[in-house]
Design a protein that fits this description.
2 copies of one chain form a homodimer. By secondary structure, chain A is of the alpha/beta class. The first copy, chain A, is 32% helix and 14% strand. Chain A has 11 helices and 14 strands. In chain A, helix 1 packs across helix 2 (176-187). The first copy, chain A, is globular. The relative contact order of chain A is 0.15.
Chain lengths: 400, 400
């Protein structure tokens, strides 16, 4: 068994562990665990197999007697099952959607039973590259098999069954979470009561693949990456530089030029003169900070696996194309687009809305935020309110 | 003296030299050389000094008796003095603006004397990091001083004097070339007869700095970078991975999602199934190809120096701000914006146009291209024609 640091970093000045993954001897925090396939290896869409996989998930609220009030929240690339709650032992970050989930919030835990599960290939408790492969006794590392959005959704279907949920009142997600939500409604139309999708797409575009590629490349180029087998590296010696630059690159296309101008402009706490290469404008310090912060909660191998998963996302694959696949959807749906999102542009959401219009009730909301793609995380009023209203109507049966 | 490969790579399958710079024992191609400061060290804006600097430049056409038909073309980041002509010994690429320069072309060499000089800090003949510092007898490498756009323009002013040109009929440039053109008109309003600027800005924005940072970081993170002292590395062992990923990142924001969708979509010559991490969509192969191609004509240190130069670009620095600085401009000007350019968005050009309007004749042209920022290189009809018309009117004195 690999030796891994058994506590998470407490100070940002400590050298980071080789991986920011959650490891099995850490406190479990609010995680619950579901043995996805205890009897046999779990076979993935691409043919890879995972022996004894587990899913880490969290729930909030109470499932009603008819199991009719369950909402599945699907997380994005660097998210995890901890969509709601505080940080604490085993849980380095507060809930990534705290403003959206809770009593009286759009996903009202007084009314709904809200579920969020870390995706397969993730690094916060669900089986992923940082997990031990029982067949070898070693952590998977770079040998973890390719996972697709369809695999993730199928694993979530098993979790739903385990929780006694035959049909979700709503499946909700932004970005990579929206890919899962859409795939839910295509794979299991009868299990999906409605869809709420923000800033997502029916198939990754060439430009999205390109951005994904350069982030992956930054990690693969890091000599400390070691073919993905870096979990035994001492503190501070994992593939931190690679993951750091991948994160800097991502933060640029997750936000917007408009926001950066507003927040940073050409400001510089570091004196510009005398000129020197090492000088940092404030925007650079911000990206350095984000690059540092992700080290304590994310894993470089998961970054590779989930980015490839997004690149492979195409609801139309093997189904006669995107438009043909979308015809399988039978539930009411709402889609939202962020004005400044140049990573998942509005046209990608409109493509889906146009395909659904006429066959199911479908709405589209424009979100006026300068936060770019991250607007799916940061606008509880503009996205949360229509989401709450929409799901409320679904619950009352006033959209069907 | 450092040992460097004395011929440029002839086959793309050969391992690349440590640097794609031009070195002094290579054929000079069409380069002419100007000793910028033969008597004393050339002192830069930031205080750095270069002993015995030289400028490599090319000219096309004939300077008229009154020296009134000279047009200065300023190159962009990875450009050089070879704006026009074929590839050949010492010159790995054909002219980067061949469609714009030549008899009957917008910069008509039957009428104009066209000059283009490699910038200070460059790597194609002008003194830069790959040059030998006579004070140490070694190549500058990572010790090359910081160069600003103002330094470049001042060096071009010295070259103009050397060529007998007191006043340019026009100063022309796109992107980093446009920064130089604008700085010309601010620094030397009496020496600048008109401006033609495409896809450029009066000051680098936070987002532009961010993109610049991640490209630099990719190089700095490459262990083969060696503090910039890699010129002695054997073939194939320079900072190629770092420069490669910097180039991939840049190519994404130099082009546009719209173009990538049109050209590549989700196409894949490499079979998608069985799924694997190493799989390449066509867009990825394209970026890999661009990343490979730049190795034979560019230098990683120059990449760092010129990106920092662009980040420091701010015509308003020390002049009371951008709008105040732009008041110094006295010449007719034309600005062009590319519809899909999200790196140098239209608003940056409009800011300058708005500042000039009312004080000098100013025009603005919208270029309808899906080539993104690179539209400044690729649209000889949409940008070349208005450019040719504009300079023609300047030459006839019909705009003044």
């Amino acid at each position: 068994m690999s030796e891994v640091p058994d506590t998470q970093r407490t100070s940002p000045t400590d050298p980071p562990p080789a991986s920011g993954a959650w490891f099995e001897h850490m406190p479990s925090g609010d995680r619950q665990f579901f043995a996805l396939s205890p009897q046999r290896a779990y076979v993935l869409e691409g043919g890879g197999e995972i022996v004894a996989p587990q899913i880490a998930y969290e729930t909030w609220g109470t499932l009603d007697a008819a199991a009719g009030n369950a909402v599945l929240v699907c997380h994005a690339l660097t998210g995890d099952a901890h969509a709601h709650g505080d940080s604490g032992p085993g849980q380095p970050t507060p809930g990534w959607w705290n403003d959206f989930i809770g009593p009286g919030r759009p996903l009202d835990t007084d009314r709904y039973f809200v579920v969020c599960a870390n995706v397969l290939g993730g690094c916060q408790g669900t089986s992923g590259p940082a997990s031990i492969d029982p067949t070898s006794g070693r952590r998977w590392g770079g040998d973890f098999p390719i996972v697709t959005v369809r695999d993730v959704v199928r694993s979530q279907r098993a979790l739903a069954r385990h929780l006694g949920i035959q049909r979700w009142l709503a499946v909700v997600g932004g970005s990579m979470g929206g890919m899962q939500a859409l795939e839910w409604a295509v794979s299991y139309p009868n299990r999906c009561g409605s869809l709420v999708i923000i800033a997502s797409t029916a198939a990754a575009s060439a430009q999205q693949i390109a951005w994904s590629q350069v982030g992956r490349q930054a990690i693969l180029d890091d000599p400390a990456y070691q073919g993905g087998h870096y979990y035994d590296a001492p503190l501070g010696e994992g593939p931190h530089r690679g993951l750091a630059n991948a994160r800097r690159i991502a933060m640029i296309h997750y936000r917007s030029g408009e926001e950066f101008d507003r927040r940073f402009d050409r400001n510089s706490n570091d004196p510009i003169e005398p000129f020197r290469l090492e000088h940092r404008f404030d925007i650079e310090s911000y990206l350095d900070y984000q690059a540092q912060k992700i080290q304590s909660r994310f894993d470089a191998n998961t970054y590779l696996i989930l980015n490839k998963m997004m690149d492979l996302h195409d609801v139309g694959r093997g189904r006669g194309g995107v438009e043909q696949a979308l015809k399988r959807i039978t539930c009411p749906s709402i889609f939202m687009s962020v004005r400044t999102d140049f990573l998942y542009p509005r046209s990608q959401q409109i493509r889906i809305v146009d395909a659904l219009r006429g066959s199911v009730p479908v709405e589209h909301v424009d979100v006026d935020s300068d936060n770019g793609h991250d607007g799916f995380l940061t606008e509880p009023e503009q996205t949360g309110e229509p989401m709450g209203d929409f799901i409320g109507k679904i619950a009352k049966g006033s959209i069907a």
